[in-house]
Structures are given as C-alpha cells and as structure tokens.
Design goal:
This protein is mainly alpha-helical. 59% of the residues lie in helices and 4% in strands. It is built from 19 helices and five strands. A hairpin with a 6-residue loop joins strand 4 and strand 5 (451-455).
C-alpha cells in the first residue's frame, strides 16, 4: 500500500494518494499524508499531522529531514516571510536527490504565501528541467506561460498560445483522451483573471487533435461573445458602398474597395470581444486556419498569410458573384421588367457580397478540416508505434503509467492477481507482472477517462532454510 501511495504521488494524483496513505500504518504514513495535505493547499492540516508525530521544530541551520522540510514549507505557506526566506535558502544546501521534492514544497509554499511570481518560476523548473508533465504541475506552468504573452502583437500571442497547446497535446494522456490537464489549466487562467487566455488555449488545443466531447465542452464554456457591431458595421458599410457605387457610378468595384477597407480597419483597430486586447482579438481571428509545426508547436505562417484553398474559394466566389450580379443588374434594370430599384440593388449586393463571403467561409472551413485530419493521422500513427511496445516489461523503469499506454500495458503484459485493491473512491483491481512478480494497482484518473497503473514493491525473497548440522562437506 505504501508503494502504491508513493506511485500515486509520482503522478500527482493527490486524492488517490491521500486515500492510500490513510490505509497505511507505518513510519512513512504520516509523512506521506502531510506531503499530500501541503500540496492540496491544507498547510495547517499538514502541520497538525507532523506535530502529532513529534516533528514541530526546524533547526536554525535549516531542515535536516524531509519532514522538517515540509514543516518549513507549511509555515511559509501560512504567510510567514521569515520561514519563506529560510525555505528559499535551503535549496542551496539540499542534496540532489531531494531537489524535486524540495521544488514541490517550495511551489506550494509560494502559492500559499501569495508569491505567484516565485511559484511560477518553480513550476517552470519542474516541467523544463525535470520533465514532469502531470496535470498538477503542467497546468500551473502553462497558465503562467499563456498569461505572460505579449499584449501588442497578434502573431506573438498566437505563437505563445500554440506552444502551450503543443505541450498539452504532447502530454500523456492526450487532451482528447483525458482533458484533466487542459481543464486544470483553463481553471488556473480564469482564477488569474485571464479569460481570453483560456479561450485561446482551448480553441488551439481543439485544432490539434480529433473531436472530443470533453474538449468541445471546454471550448464552449470559454468561448467569448463577439461584439455584434464589430461584425455588423463593416458588413453594412460594404453592402451600402457596393449598392451606392453600383447605382451612382454604374460599377461595384469602388464599393468593394470601400467595404474591404472597412473590414480591414475593423480587424486592425477594433477588438472583437469586449475586454480583450487588440492582439488577443487578432490572434483569435487568426487561429481558424493556421498550421502548426509538429516539433515546436509554433505556427508555420503569419496570421495574415494567404492560404491556397481559402484563396481559391474566395477568387471563385468573387468571379461567380460579380458575373451573376452583373447579369442580374442588367436584367432587373430593363424597364420592361418593372423591378423596383431597391430590390435590384439588394439582390445585386447579395450576389456581389454574399456569394464571395460564403465561398471564402467554405474554403476556410474545408482547409481547417483537411489540416485537422492530417494532424490526427500523424499523431495516431505515432501513438500506434508507442503502443506496440506495451507488451514489454516496464517494472524496472516506471513507478506509474497513465493513459492509453497504461491500458494497453495492463491488457498485453500484466495478468490478473488474487485479491481486490482496498480503494473505495474509485474502481480498482490488482494486476501482477509475469516476469518480475510485482503487483500493480489498476484504477482510473480523477476524471475517470483514463487508466492509471501504480507499481507495487518487488516480491519478497524467502529466507534460506537453516543449514543442517554436519552437511556441506565439513567435518
């Protein structure tokens, strides 16, 4: 049970770790429960647990044990500046094997003390230098990354958000398999007052993988309400300009030029969502058709770059609309037809404007769907290559497995074991490795959308039988 609890801590499943530690009665149980309580935001509860175990003071020269380190972190999280200073200074003297645990304690303490800048730096180190990609850590790091995007350059905003989305897509499990990391990141962004960042991130992630009910629900929950006037005014200017130009000048091109200038100006100087910056608005409009690099996650072109399929659709729509509008104009202006000039102008404007707009919209949607399917196909092939290795023993390497690989590993390599896992909060079973004999606990993630495997200890080796007197060849 202790090994399973430590494995749950390795994947930052704090609820499961707390449940497992509560069923352990040895010298490690109190330490484990205190660590989980601190990381869950209950510094007072962690201090009470350690005080009851006789760990309440920290030497003047710094912590000398893991429990004393947690005590110092709890005091710092309660808003004691001196203890936070001591905790920061302790990082220079701790051995390397305690570095990761120290960073967790420091990050939790900084958050509790309201030092978000310090906490953001700590979680970035945990992700970048130690390669931790759990929802608990990744959500905090990516929230700070997205929130720090520049506020004046739409291209830079897209790049920053796309890099964060690429990190989420590269994590295990994928967002469309289990949206826990994406949900935690958006929740963190909203708590920081960055609703625009949450909307941009969820939309970008939805562009990089197959459709998922959980991801679509997050996109809908964070989708902004666009300003109606930001769309209606330039469209009205375009229609009026085309109609007036056709009636007065007998040509619609000047009206198209005026309407196009109105559309460009509205996107250039008018934020589409109330409360958003212009850069966020430009990024939002530019995300609909961008391609992203598979390695870096950065967009491959500018937000204003021309794209083949939408461009061809726009040209074709314009040609058809102009031709049809010209024919309609000549036919309706014939005195023998008795068509009111208002009707003639409205229908002509719809031909000249509506058909090109509809064709462009269809081109953008078609291009986006084509690219999404190509991205899904590439990622599916990569995942299939990784899953093909799931039948090989990993007891020597991993203390915990999550996602589709864990599900395949349990089915292809582990066998059923006698007995049930004593976990009441989630469905769980015990599996055994046929090679090492290690017992794994199979359960689900917090959301229930993915499989979690926690490795137990190695089987105990039976003690050798006592030697028989007079045996062994000796007199």
């Amino acid at each position: 049970m202790s090994a399973w609890a430590r494995a749950a801590e390795d994947v930052d499943d704090l609820d499961l770790a707390a449940t497992l530690w509560s069923q352990v009665d040895d010298e490690h149980a109190v330490s484990g429960r205190a660590r989980v309580a601190l990381l869950s935001g209950d510094a007072a509860g962690a201090l009470a647990l350690l005080a009851a175990a006789g760990v309440a003071d920290v030497p003047a020269d710094g912590p000398r044990s893991l429990d004393q380190l947690v005590v110092l972190g709890c005091r710092a999280a309660q808003g004691r500046p001196d203890d936070l200073s001591r905790l920061v200074a302790a990082g220079a003297t701790l051995p390397a094997q305690l570095r990761l645990l120290y960073l967790y304690v420091l990050g939790a303490a900084a958050e509790g003390a309201g030092r978000q800048d310090l906490a953001d730096g700590v979680w970035r180190t945990v992700v970048v230098e130690h390669g931790v990609r759990t929802p608990h850590v990744l959500s905090r790091f990516l929230a700070s990354w997205v929130q720090g995007r520049p506020g004046t350059d739409g291209r830079a905003v897209v790049t920053r958000v796309a890099e964060a989305a690429h990190e989420l897509v590269g994590a295990v499990p994928r967002p469309w398999e289990d949206a826990a990391a994406l949900e935690a990141t958006t929740r963190e962004l909203v708590a920081r007052g960055d609703a625009a960042g949450a909307a941009l991130l969820t939309t970008t992630v939805s562009r990089l993988g197959p459709r998922s009910e959980a991801v679509d629900a997050l996109v809908s929950a964070h989708a902004p309400r666009r300003r109606t006037l930001q769309r209606a005014v330039p469209v009205a200017v375009l229609v009026v300009a085309v109609v007036v130009s056709a009636v007065v000048l007998r040509h619609g091109l000047p009206g198209f030029a005026i309407g196009g200038a109105a559309l460009w100006a509205s996107r250039r100087w008018w934020a589409p969502v109330r409360g958003w910056s212009l850069a966020d608005g430009q990024a939002w409009d530019g995300l609909v058709a961008l391609r992203f690099d598979d390695t870096s996650g950065a967009p491959r072109e500018r937000t204003s770059s021309l794209r083949l399929l939408p461009s061809l659709a726009a040209v074709a729509g314009l040609a058809v609309g102009v031709a049809l509008g010209g024919w309609w104009w000549q036919w309706s202006l014939d005195p023998a037809r008795h068509v009111p000039w208002q009707v003639s102008g409205i229908v002509g404007g719809l031909c000249w404007f509506g058909i090109p707009a509809l064709a462009t919209w269809a081109g953008v949607r078609g291009d986006r769907e084509r690219r999404r399917r190509a991205d899904v196909r590439r990622r599916t092939e990569a995942d299939a290559t990784a899953l093909a290795q799931a039948a090989t023993c990993r007891c020597w390497e991993a203390s915990a497995l999550v996602g589709s690989y864990a599900e395949r590993y349990a089915a292809a390599h582990l066998g059923a074991a006698a007995g049930a896992a004593p976990v009441s909060v989630r469905a769980a079973s015990v599996r055994v490795c046929p090679l090492s004999g290690m017992r794994w606990m199979a359960t689900t993630s917090v959301t229930g959308a993915s499989v979690v495997l926690l490795r137990g200890p190695a089987p105990s080796v039976p003690a050798p039988a006592p030697a028989v007197p007079g045996a062994g060849g000796y007199l």
